[in-house]
Amino acid sequence: MSGGPSPATLVVVGAGPRATGLLERIAANAPELWPEGRELHIHLVDPYPPGPGRIWRHEQSPLLRMNSMAEDVTMFTDETSTVDGPVRPGPSLAEWAARFSAPDPHRTPLSPGLPAPPGQGEAPPAAGPDVLADPEVLAELRTLSGTDFPTRRAQSAYLTWVFRRALADLPPSVTVEWHRTTATAVTGPADGPQQVRLAGRAAPLTADLVVLAQGHLGAAPAPEHRAHAAFARRHGRFHLPPEFSADADLSALRPGEHVLVRGLGLAFVDLVALLTEGRGGAYRTGHDGTLTYLPSGREPVLHVGSRRGVPYHSKTRYRLQGPTPPLPRHFGPAAIDALLAEGRPLDLRRDVWPLMAKEIGFGHYHELFHGHPGRTALPWPDFAAAYDRLDWYSDAMTALIAEAVPDPADRLDFEALDRPLEGLSFATPHAFQEHLRAYVARDVARREDPEHSADLGAFLALLSVYGHLPRLVAAGRLTARSLAHDLDGWWHGFFSFLASGPPGFRLRQLLALSRAGIVRFTGADLRVDTDEATGTFTATSPTLPGHTVHATALIEAYLPRPSLDRTADPLLRSLYRAGELAEEVVTDPAHTHRSGLLAVSPADGHVVDPLLGGRHPRRIALGAPTNTRAVAAFARPRTDAPAFRQNDAVARALLRTLGGRTRSAAPPGSGHGFVRLPT
């Protein structure tokens, strides 16, 4: 090394799927961009195992599952990926699991974790803990089909393997060290080395560049939740603010206790599993296929409601019956260029949603016409030509669809989908339970019947829209009010409602719990209050006028919303309080929107530092806490995932920047004990 450049140093805070994806792209781009023989030391800082990180760690209940089929989960680029770096295909979760279905004498098993080297860090383990030695996970992987919804433990094993593969693909001059702790602060000048302080360690890490990739973060309770918590303390009641389900302590809930649950999304589904099967209950399937819940006697009684008042739509469990729709068609780069060229502030619902809706409709009708032509009355070329010409919200479009699609059940009605209880009210709770059970049963049947595969076509178009929308948002042309109410409010909820629902079996379980009296639906536009006289939480809904539920516990069944001023992450909290990073704040004459998201440069992810008046050249942030939006760490195969594009762009910029440095930020003799893992 004498006479050559000193090693470059990169610190990545967070070692979950986002960091793993970045590492994979560093390995993919290194042959082109990293100087041969030049040393690069990468520090990963995370108290949870590298690969799965906190959210997908092995140490959580085996009852918790993904809401995606195994064949719809990948960490790898493919032929659809529009990245500047090389495409390096890899197996989906289902394809990877298939290697365990039968003994393969040519397969090399994952090596065990290495002992910790001398110094502050340690080599990342193979499965830490060794999830591939877990007999339950191995049994699941051996029988996992592409259309199964895996446990989170299975996903943990997959993410661990992806991480190990990324390490194996790095050139010999690049080493990785894992610090099993939390980063608490980062300091340093914009033009000099960065010091990353770690909990429980005296000496900081010194880095040329720092990447913040902490993933989904917790937050201190908002004022409303603090008020409810104070009420619960005064009256000896139970209150759970928004929390990650795997981390929630539910032990204080008593058997038979009446509990208000606000939220009917994925957090709700997980909490219900933990409070029913997790407390010893079981399901039995009758001869007619009906599911019955057998209580253990330890369950609370759950009164559940939300703004819509219905659970998220079930995930589809079938494949397209026709060819994949050619997307994007009506909401892609050309459409966004045209919107931006208008040079005026944009309102999402007025200016953008009609194009988004038309795109989703195209996916729906493309599949209906190609997969089920007997249910259409026009040739596809004739319908498509007319569809392309017409505006979504026009009498002519309504007439075209009515002529071409005879059965109203085959037509796409966003308003009916969005608010299924709108205008409905019921005289008794029993009547509403019957109505909602029928609604959920129809939804599950539709989402598992390939005769309705047009819903999958719409879903694929919905993903396409979701992936292209961030470019429009990054351009800064949406009004502040539209950004707040339409994008971060209505659109985020609508997308999740349609696209991020649970597997069908979870909703069948919910029906069984409802019939058993464990779950009781309370309606839409749920209002939660407190009653000091009785010391109870109360819930009312216009769906059941005149009916009030009293409960001794309240669960907010949704994830914490982004909030820099209340973040549980100590590093982001310290930077925010020091004024060295900024919350995204969008202001115009009519409105101010504070999103709670970390503001980053849309082009390269560099943190916006108010003290510098712009981007910080040595600090980068990726993923969930940032205002890039729509960048989930893993994706459905062949969807040109936005996260993969961002990972690739950042990896290439990192390699160029670090490869061009002539001096290392690490002082001589720092002795961190870097270890090159064997392949």
Automatic annotation (TrEMBL):
Signal peptide: none annotated. It comes from the Bacteria. InterPro entries: HpyO/CreE_NAD-binding, L-asp_N-monooxygenase_NS-form. Residues 102-127, 660-679 are annotated as: Disordered. Residues 11-216 form the FAD-dependent urate hydroxylase HpyO/Asp monooxygenase CreE-like FAD/NAD(P)-binding domain. It holds the Pfam family NAD_binding_9. This is Adenylate cyclase.
